[in-house]
Amino acid sequence: MALCGGQLFELLPHSVYAALIPLFIAEWGLSNAEAGWIGGMGAFGYMLAVPFLGSATDRVDARLVYLGSAVLSLAAGLGFAFAAEGFWSAVAWRMLAGIGHAGMYMPGLRALTDRVDAAEKSRVVVSYTASYSVGVAASFVIAGWIAARWGWPAAFIVSGIGPAVAGLIVAAVLRPKWPPPPANPANVLTQFGQVAKNRAALGYILGYGCHSYELMGYRAWSVAFMVFAAANAGPGAFVLEPTVVAFLVTLFGLPASILGNELAIRLGRRRLIGSVMALSSIVALSVGAAAGGPYLLILALMILHAVMMAADSGSLTAGTVAAAKPEQQGATMALHSMTGFGCSFLGPLMVGLSLDAAGGRADPAAWFFAFAAMGLGGVLGLLVLRITR
Prior knowledge:
The protein is mostly helical and 389 residues long. The protein is 81% helix and 0% strand. It has 18 helices and no strands. Helix 17 (329-358) packs antiparallel against helix 18 (364-388). It is globular, with a radius of gyration of 20 Å. The two termini are 34 Å apart.
């Protein structure tokens, strides 16, 4: 429970940029593609760092990796608040934030699974990954609330302190526990090559990449889309604050992820994941088709899309953990995370490119193509699962 609670603080910086993306587009004169680049750079930094930080947990206590990375995350939040002045500086600070996150998310999961019984691992993993949704949801609404009152730098300062609090929690609660020395020490690339031969794990890893592509495209642009939907709702229509909508739809990911894993235990993990991915793609197209339509219909479809995307999240990670060989746990989780966040980098960028190519954020047709680009992740994930089964 301490690690799940700590993760809520660790994730406070996660969605600050996404929550304020319309503001940065206007203030810095960004194109949608440039905004997408910045939105994806956290995932890009994560992808570069996690092979080393994740694999390190096979040799050192994951708790130490977590604590060191908490310092990096704090520096990234404060750096963005005080030094980000446009596209390139924002790219640099978001990349550093991704590196810090890489040393906290999966190493935190490793620290957790190293300290529980094997019989409890599946549910513990899902609880940890499901709490991710709560942290991301809180990040949206807190960022919007703080920025509206004290400006966007204050949102990055306050959220940037979150990872430091998470580090203090882990330092206070977890006792040191070093992994057994690896029987055959190998470099990162060799370790990844060995993991890739594990066909069962590889299917979940690639499926997680496709899932993450769609999910991060959605999260990065959900506030901007709801700003568009609110502007088209007409005078007197019921409208929620876009960051509140992002909070609500992301929060639905918590029960959806837990319920999805329970269904996977009963129905079969691959069957459940494949069905969810197919439905998620269909709902994504439905959201895009509804752009410019009734606000309440759009809101309902956004919630449904969030539920569908979250329903297979915990099952994909639990599948990777279950399929990993004991001596390759750290490397397997590192490859899983690197693949997921590498594809996460592409999601916001592809949505931004689609918007620019199809007429911009004010055009309902452009949003259809944007959501079609998101839904491509579910289609590819379904194909991956069929190929690797």
